[in-house]
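In response to a reviewer's request, we include the raw inputs and outputs for one of the modeled complexes. The three entities were modeled together in a single run.
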Amino acid sequence: MSAALPRAMGRAALGLATFALITAGSVALTRALTAERIADNRQASRHREVAAVAPAGHDGRLLDHVVSRPAAPAFGFESPVSLWQARDGERVLGGVVPVTAPGGYSGDIALVVGLDATGTITGVRVTEHRETPGLGDRIEARKGDWIEQFTGHSLANPPAGGWAVRQDGGGVDALTGATITSRAVIAALHRTLQWVEARPALFATADTGETP
Amino acid sequence: MTTPSLGEVSRHGLWSNNPALVQLLGLCPLLAVSSSVVNALGLALATLLVLLGSNVAVSLIRHQVTGTLRLPAFVMIIAAFVTCAELLMAAYTFELYRILGIFIPLIVTNCAILGRAEAFASRQPLLPSATDGLMTGLGFGAVLVLLGGLRELFGQGTLFVGMDLLLGPAAAGWGITVFPDLDFLFLVLPPGAFFATGLLIALKNVIDDRLERRRLERQPDRPREHRRVRVTGTIR
Amino acid sequence: MSLMHADQTAPRRPASTAGVMRWLLLATLPGIAALTWHFGWGVLTNLGFAAVAGIGLEAAMLRLRGRPVSATLADNSALVTAVLLGVALPPGSAWWLILIGMVAAIVVAKHLYGGLGHNLFNPAMVGYALLLVSFPGPMSLWPGPDGLLGPEARPLGETLRQFAGLTSLETLDALSGATPLDAFKHKPEALMAGEFWAGTPLPEGALTAWRQVALAWLAGGALLLYKRVIGWQIPVAMLGTLSLVATLLYAGNPSHQGSPLFHLLGGAAIFGAFFIATDPVSAATSRRGKLLYGAGIGALVMAIRAAGAYPDAVAFAVLLMNFAAPFIDYYSEPRVFGHPAATRGIRADAGEEER
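The model returned the following C-alpha cells for the whole complex.
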C-alpha cells in the first residue's frame, strides 16, 4: 500500500466537495429566488395578527410604526418592548403590545394586546402557547370566544380587584378545567394595562423615541 | 439486479411494499402531521417531491458515485431537496408551512427516502427509479391523507377544512362539517394516530387475505403455500 | 392423610372466574350505595347503561370472534368492567360518553388483545383514561353532593335529561362542583392550604361525602380480602407508598400540600387500591411482584397528583404499571419448591437457545 490510499482519499474528498458545491449551490439558488417572497409572507402574517386586535380606523401601516420602550420587569416585560402604534396620519389611535404571559399550564403564553389611546382593550389574541388540547387551548380565538370577552375593558373596568378569575374573587369566569391558563392570561393583561397607565405618553404622539 | 417492470414497481410502491403500512417507515411525520386532510396533503406532497427528486438524482449519478462516497452523497442530495421543499413551501404556502413547522425539515429523517435511494435508485435506470419514487411517494401520501381524513372526520367532525392554505383561495369553501360539535381529542392527539394506523394495517391485511384466498380458489390444483407468521405483510 | 390440608396458607381451591366476579360485584355494593346516597340518581344511570352496553358489546365481540356467547357471558367479567367504569365516571354522564368508554374497554382493551386473560391493560381504566384525555370538559364535572332524596337532590327526570345528552355543558358546569382533589390542585399559588380550607372552596359537604364513599369502598375491599378474592399485597403496598409519599410531601411543605389523609380519602385511592389495581389479569402475579407493582402505583399516583396535569391519577398510574407488570414478574419469579433458585432477568444465553 504505497500511495494508493492517500490518492483514493483525495479522490473521495474531491468528489464529496464537488457534491457539496452542487447541492449547496442549488439550495442557495432556491433561497435567492424565494427569500423576498418569504420575507413578505412573514410580514403579512405578522400584520394579520396585529391588525386583528388593533383599534379600528388605522391607516393599515401598523408594522411601520414601531415604538420601543425599555424593559419593565415589574410589569412582566423582561426585555425591551417593541410595540406597534396604530395611526391615522399623525393621529395616534392606540397600539398593539406583544405580551408574554408566564405561568401557563405548560410554559409561557404569547399574546398580542390591542389598546386604544384611552387604555381600553380593542382585542386580544394568543399567538403562541402549549396549553392542554381541549382545556387550555380554548384561549385561541378559533377554538372559543373566551379571549374575546376582554375587548372593551380597561384597568378601571371592571373596578378594582376585578382583574382575576372568579375563584380568586375576581370578575372573570375561568375556562372550565383550565383555571391556571385563565389566571396566567388575566394576570398578564392586568399587568399590561397597569404598564400602559403608567406611561400616559405612550399613545399621545407619533413619536418613536425611547422615552420611558 | 434485474430491472422490474414499471407495473411491478408501481404495485410495490402503492400496495405490497407500502412504506407506511408494510415497511412502517416515516412514522414520525405520519403520526404527527395526519391530524387533518390539509396538513396530511401538504406533507404528502412535500415528501413525494423529495422522493421523486432524490430517486431521479441518485439514479442519474449511480455510475459516477460508488463505494464509500455513495451514502454521504445520497444524504446531501436528500438534504438539499428537503431544504428546497421547505423554502418553496415557505414562499408559496406560508400558513401551512407554519402549521407543519418542524416536520418539513424532518422529512430528511424519513427512512423511506434514503431506503429507496439505496435499495432501488442506486441500482436502476432513470425511468424505473422515477416511477419507484413517484409510486412510493404516492403510497405514503395516500396513507397519510387517508389517516388525515379519518382523524379530521372523527376527531373534529369536519373534512377538508383549511384547504385554501395549500391550494389557494379557490379552495376556501371546501370545508364541510359532518358532525357538528364533535371534539374527540383522542383521535386528534398522537395516540389516536397510532390507533388509526393500526386499524389501517389490519384492514390491509384483511384485504390481502381475501385476495389470496380468492386467488387460491381460482387455482384449485396448486398446493397451498406454506403459512408464515407475519406482522404487516411481506417485506420484499 | 391430613398432609393435604396441613398448610393453612395454601389456596383452598382455585375459584371459578364467575365466582370471583360475583364476589367482586357484591363487594362494590357498599361503595355504590354510598355514591348514590351522596351524588344521586346519576350513579345508577351510569351503572345501568354501562352494564347494558358492556353485555351487548361483549356478546357482539364474542360472536364476531366465533366464541361461545352465553357460556362466556356467564363469567360476569363484562359486568364487572361495566360497574368499575360506571362508578368512576362523573354521575349522570351522557349515554354517548359511557358508550365510547365501554367500546374502548370491551372492544379495544379486552377483545382486540385476545379476550379475558389476555388483556395487557385493565379494560375499565383504558376506557376511563381514553375518556379523560378525549373529553376533559364533561369528565371534570362532578355534581355536588346533593344527596339522593334531600331537598337539594337533583330529580330523577333531570338526571335522565342529562343522561340523554340534552343538558348543555354550560348548564352542567353551573350545576357541578369540582372534586376535592381538583379544587385543591387549582387553588391560587398565593393561598395557603389553611386559608383554602377555611374558605368555602367546595360545595357544602363534599369532603365528607368523598370520605364516606372512600370508607365504603374500604368496607368492600375488606370483604374481598376476607374472602381471599384478592391478596393483601397490592392494596397495602399501594396505599402504604401513597401515604408515605404524601407524608413526605406534606412534611416538606405543609402550607401547599394536601395532608396524607386528604390524599388517602379525598379521591379514588381506596377504590383503585382494592378494585382496580388488584385485577388479576393485568397486575403482577408473584408475591414480591405484587408488592413492587402496588408500590409503583402508589408512587405514580402521588407523582401525578403533585406535579402532573391531572388532579387524580389512579387510572394513569394503573395503566403505566400494567406496562411494567410483565417486566416485574420476570424479575421477581419465585423459587419453586424443590427447585434451585429461580433465574431472574434475561439469561445471557437466552438468545442462543432460540437459534
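As requested, we also summarize the result in words. DSSP finds ten helices and two strands in chain B. The first strand of chain B starts at residue 158 and ends at 159.
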